Amino acid sequence: MEQNFTIKLFGFPYIFESKKEISKAKEIADFLAKEVRRVESQHSKKKINLTKDVILISAALNIIDEYFELKKEHNDLLEDISNKALSINRTLDKNIETK
To answer: Which of 9, 29, 10, 31 is nearest to 18 (CA)?
Structure first.
């Protein structure tokens, strides 16, 4: 069931539909709004005037960069766990064979 929720960007409300649980959709939207505010603030300190589109794209790229970094860390962790599990299994197999 699709539900509507509102996100405020650049001082204006935007209404979106979501098939996800509304609290999850709002959490995602709030995350985006927070990153947009961060990018906007960062550039206002540098006295650089950026369009809303550039700010949104910059925020999206920051989020995607963070996602890819977390994805890499996750894959590295899974590989490390897999290698350690394999090592443990080999050790257990050797101990079973010697008994």
So the answer is: 29
